[in-house]
Design brief:
- Helix 1 runs antiparallel to helix 3.
- Helices cover 32% and strands 30% of the residues.
- It is α+β, with helices and mostly antiparallel strands.
- The longest helix is centred in the last third of the chain and has 20 residues.
Amino acid sequence: MVSPRHPNDTVTIAPGVLLTIARLASLEVPGVVRMGNTPGGVDRLFRRVPAANGVQLAINDGTVTAHLYVVADATVNLRDMCMSVQKSVARSIREILGMKVESVNVHVEDVHFSHVEDSSGG
């Protein structure tokens, strides 16, 4: 039996949950090899912007802006991969958390080559 909601009831979602959802939604996209490094420094600490494992978030009035730093596979179309990451992260945040998504910005930090051919001919 579910008790009725009271007007003072609240639900709080830890920033780490949001970071994990965004990171996992990014990693499930074909072509994303791993998450990159999140830029930081003193400015991030003073603004208290949640960031970890290649994901940086800004949350204002229940609306999320995400910056994702990824390492891409060299064989994929980077534009298509980035668009897929944007869609996957926005959909996950909306469906799992019910939060509005203002923007999802994807930063390709590096390109991963699975093998490097030896061109020395030796």
